[in-house]
Amino acid sequence: MEYTAHPRRPLGPEAATIRTQVQVPLQFADGYATTAHVTTFRGLADGQEHLAWAFGDPADSGLPLVRVHSECLTGDVFGSARCDCGPQLREAVERIATSGGVLLYLRQEGRGIGLYNKLDAYALQDAGLDTYEANTALGFAEDARDYTVAAQMLAALGVTRLDLLTNNPDKAGQLRELGVAVRRTVPTGVFASESNLRYLHAKAEHTQHTLALPVGPGSAVLAG
Ligand SMILES: Nc1nc2c(ncn2[C@@H]2O[C@H](COP(=O)(O)OP(=O)(O)OP(=O)(O)O)[C@@H](O)[C@H]2O)c(=O)[nH]1
Ligand SMILES: [Zn+2]
Predict the structure, then answer these.
(1) Which of 29, 35, 97, 219 is the most buried (most CB within 10 A)?
(2) Catalytic residue list contains 143
(3) Domain span at residue 197?
(4) Could you tell me if the ipTM is greater than 0.85?
(5) Which of 82, 145, 163, 198 is an active site residue?
(6) CA of 47 to the centre of ligand 1 (A)
(7) What is the number of domains present in the chain?
(8) Mean pLDDT in each 10-residue stretch from start to end of the chain (224 residues)?
């Protein structure tokens, strides 16, 4: 009889462990108040300080809603309208605070190339390149993010199955390859404006983000 080797299960990422868990009170604009359980980790693959913001006990809630959000200092903190990161972050925190689940805040500024390089890329965009072309012109991958740390953090929190809040098919694809059972993706809102329309079109064209957008850059502004 012919010998057939069993296909090997790909090895998952090394385990990370929980380092600290603290409670952070939050109050939203409408007055709703809740508590986030903020977790730090040991043993994350890239040595960065990534955070989990959990609402309720994500391991207990069956299929928690999870957002894997990459850092964008300009949008998340300063309200830059060049991208949709700030409104997406606020939407995610409000939705997950309501439904229960976890937001992973990954320190992957500029799709993993860092803040200064992202600002260099902005300068190239102002000279006509789109966001992905600007990355490659600087010698980086179009999108340099690797979600291994997200899989490590979810495992440390006891979350193995989830619904993922994203329009980015690469996030769901990478997480599934890393052994995370993503049941389905839940689309975020589309936060289009005159200032970020080119950025959003580039996401839909280069990385197949599922975004319902007006026909082309420069066309009419979508209501938030
Ligand atoms: N290199 C580069 N990065 C950018 C630019 N604009 C925003 N970013 C980064 O893009 C990332 C956006 O990440 P996410 O909010 O996770 O969004 P996403 O991958 O587009 O997918 P969603 O889950 O659908 O929101 C952040 O790290 C931003 O800093 C840009 O022009 N150039
Ligand atoms: Zn941004």
Answers:
(1) 97
(2) yes
(3) 17-108+145-207
(4) yes
(5) 145
(6) 21
(7) 1
(8) 55 87 95 96 96 86 91 97 95 95 97 97 93 94 94 95 94 95 92 76 72 54 35
